[in-house]
Amino acid sequence: MTDLQSIKTRFGIIGNYPALNRALEKAIQVAPTDISVLVMGESGVGKEFIPKIIHSESRRKHQPYIVVNCGAIPEGTIDSELFGHEKGAFTGANSQRQGRFEQANGGTLFLDEIGELGLDEQAMLLKALEDQSFFPVGADQEIQVNFQLIAGTNKDLRIEVQAGRFREDLWARLNTWTFFLPSLKERREDIAPNIEFELQRFANVHQRQLRFHSDALEKYLQFAQSHEATWQGNFRDLTASVTRMATLANGERI
User: Fold this and answer.
1) pTM (global) more than 0.70
2) Residues paired with residue 16 on neighbouring β-strands, in sequence order
3) Within the chain, where are the H helices?
4) CB 167 within 8 A of CB 126
5) Better pLDDT: 254 or 110
6) Phi, psi of 148 (to 5 degrees)
7) How confident is the model over 19-42, as pLDDT tens digits?
8) 3-class secondary structure, 134
9) Which of these, 62, 41, 66, lies nearest to 51 by C-alpha position?
10) On the CB side of 173, how many CA atoms lie within 13 Å of its CA?
């Protein structure tokens, strides 16, 4: 079994927060199985690493890895996006199109932001997942598929189920194993090494020599703590702020 540090190195994951380490260790353990996985956490916490790790350590690692951002699918087109369509199935269907389910056959399918789907779309998805088969739009022949399903969401689906916004049966289908990823705001001891990592990455791309003065780094950490209500505490915020500071730096030291 692959060890934790090699996984961190391979995927550029920085930090040793206990909850993060547990999540990565469980991803390695889950990888040899075909169970459905649900990854929950705030936007920008790095949920996409879990399905990538699971796929890379699974028996399906040489098969397709397909990502679908459910929140980006235009309303009314999820059946075509997931299941594909035949030529002439509807206005604008000028050619046959293979859906994401079929593309993922034999591999791994990551349905990101699944909490954004409406109830009708959830019902359609549930039936296809339970049957492991579907009809492309306009087709009369069913297609069988086999893939490992991983879903991600920045919503707490337990609350969404209680509020009637998410189907309980679909949640149960997805919830064989659930990962809760902590935000960077919670992982305070991991903020400084991630800042250093992002700065080095910027420096390498732009072929510059850059480093933080210890006082500047301490100021950033103080800012994150004192502005906890407004600092989102995710990697997008951190990357953007480091990029701004590095761009405006005079000389090699910030």
Assistant:
1) yes
2) none
3) 4-11, 18-30, 49-56, 78-83, 100-103, 119-131, 157-162, 168-174, 191-205, 214-226, 235-248
4) yes
5) 110
6) -85, 130
7) 999 999 999 999 999 999 999 998
8) strand
9) 66
10) 19
